[in-house]
Each structure stands twice: as structure tokens, then as C-alpha cells.
Amino acid sequence: DYVQRWRQRQPETPPNEAEPCRVRVYVRKRPLFGYEQEAEEFDVATAKGRKIVIHNCLTKADLRSLFISHMGFQFAEVFGEAASDEEVYQSTACPAVQHLLQNKVATLFMFGQTGSGKTHTMGGLVQRAAQHIFQQEPTVTLTAFEIAGKVMRDLLDHTHKEKELKIREDKGGNTQVLGLHSLEASSPEQLQRFMTEAQNGRATRATQVNETSSRSHAVFQIRKADSTATLTLVDCAGSERREDTTNHDARSRKDAAEINSSIHALKECFRAMRSAKGQPPYRESLLTRVLSDSFSSDEAMIVAIGTVSPAAKDTEHSIGTLRALQQLQGTQMTLEEREDVLKPKVEVEKESHPKTWSEAEVR
Ligand code: ADP
Ligand code: MG
């Protein structure tokens, strides 16, 4: 029965072919760090084509075992440790920048465990996006803020770093963040410098208040002059917080609960976007409220990039991240993917996997 189902398996179809442009979910696997290799850490993830497989190994020897279970997930595209920033840019952020340049709204979410490469990947994308944007635009404005629990702070207001930002509903029911500093950039270098300053504002606080960056969402918005067209980049709070509800102090638990609710709200908004019916329930969290424009326009584009660690010690968090990303994408693990379960990692890696594109994806 098992073998028969395996033989009958269908050719791959893109998970979100019906909505080629509205919601796209990608995954990037980072390399093992030198210090991880020195600590006998090993790589349990295989990225190929549109799939990523996580092996459930306790020891390095398990990688060759036929009896080790593993889990496969499929996304719009998966970038392995050898993928360059340029490749990631071309598939993920480049279409979003084009969307911006056509006066539309596009949003990029970086989602993953702390230390999996969210900020690193975003840096590479921003650098290329800045070059791309200024080929066409003379100036853009940047705003940046951070959401930690229920508190928002401006990342560009260096004189009032701790001031809490307020929000207001406008007549149309949209939520606006009040008193945000905005900086005008007139070159790619300047835009990048502002972005770096904003990231640093976050990092400084992080060392003061114990790792805030893993507990907060950072939102960067690049706006075309005289236009509502916006490119939003969201460096999400560490996805490991989702499970982190047993330990730690009350403050930490409260933050974790808040992050949980924002991720849940995100999933619901993604779902509404995919089905293109009904209003996205963006009122359910502060993050989705302030991003309501990202979800409410018919022409909005959403791209999520999940980052995962390949290290065996992070297996649980990697699987948690990939499951959450599948929910954002609206797919379940398929039978076909579960069929992979009886192959050792070396076999999975050997398999050739030509990248095939559907017409919708080429567009
Ligand atoms: P996060 O923002 O998810 O907590 P970071 O982006 O800070 O994680 O990444 C943690 C470390 O790993 C950084 O030193 C970063 O430079 C490095 N890193 C992450 N992804 C990659 C990658 N794809 N290639 C090389 N180094 C990476
Ligand atoms: Mg980070």
C-alpha cells in the first residue's frame, strides 16, 4: 500500500499557484558556524529545490541510518547554505521592490529562531533593494519602529529612545503610528546607513534589557515620495518564543504571549489574503494593526522568508519554525513529503532535484 502510494505520487505543484502574487513563503537555511562544528555539532537539514528536510538525529552516526525519521516541508523556494544573498534577493525581495516601484504596497517578513539569520538576510536584501530603488527614484523616506509586547518605540528617534509611541485610528479605520520620525534618503548608501542606525538602536537596547531583539518585532518602512506605495520589512521576534511559556519571569511570559498572539494574527491575515475573501482580522494584534495597509489593499504583496538553523541542537525550533511557515502558506505536509521518511540524509542529498518553474512563478 505504502509503495503503491509512493508510485502514484503526483508531480509537484506549487503550493500557492492559485495566488501567484499575493502571498509567498520562502525558507533559507544558514550554514553551521565554525564554533558549532568545533563543538561536534552537525547539520540535520537538507535543502533542495522547493523542499527542506529535517532529520531527527541524536548523533552524527544517525545521519546515515535508514531508521531515522525525518520531516519534509515544501515552500515557494528553499535556499540552502550555499545560496548567495543575490539569489535570495532575486527570488524574494526583487519582486517586492518592483511592486513598490509600480506604486503598490509590498511587505517582507523575516521569521525564524534567534540566531538563524533573520537580520543577516534582511541586511543583504536591504543593500540590494536600496540599489534597485534608486535606479528609479530620486528620494525615499524611511521610518522604523520596534514592537516589544504592547509597547512601540521609534528606532530613528535617537534623542527619545525610550519614549513610547502612540497609535490612532483614522476615519477609514486604519491605524496610524503617531509622531514617527521619518528620514529622507537620496542615495542607496544613505538609505542603508539609516537602516543600520535603526538596527543599532535596537541592538543597543538589547544589551541593556537582556536580548530585546529576540523579543521584539522591528518594522522598517520605505516610502516613495508623494505616494502611499510602501515597502515594509519586518524583522520578527525570535520564533522560539512561541514555545517559551513555562520558564522565565512574568515579563518574559507576557512578551511570549504577546508574540504568540501576533503570530496567530499574522497567520489569520495571511489566510484572508490567500483566499482573497473577507477582511483580514488585523485588529487582533498590535503588529497586524500597524501593518493593516499591508493586508487591506487588493494589490498588496506579501513575502515571508523563514530562516532556519541546520544544527541538531536546534531541531525542535527548526521544525517549529517550518510548521509555522506552512501555516502562513496554508499547506500541510503532504503524503509525498512524508514518503521521504525512510531515507538516510546522504541519500536525500544525493537525489537530483531539478528546479522546475510553473508559468505563474516565472512571471
Ligand atoms: P537573527 O537575526 O535571526 O537572530 P542573525 O541574522 O543575527 O540572526 O544571525 C546570527 C549570526 O549568524 C550572525 O553572525 C550572522 O552573520 C550569521 N548568519 C546568519 N545567516 C547566515 C548565512 N546565511 N550565511 C552566513 N552567516 C550567517
Ligand atoms: Mg536579529
Automatic annotation (TrEMBL):
Residues 22-331 form the Kinesin motor domain. ATP binds at residues 112-119. It comes from the Eukaryota. Belongs to the TRAFAC class myosin-kinesin ATPase superfamily. Kinesin family. This is Kinesin motor domain-containing protein. The chain holds residues 332 to 694 of 752 of the full protein.
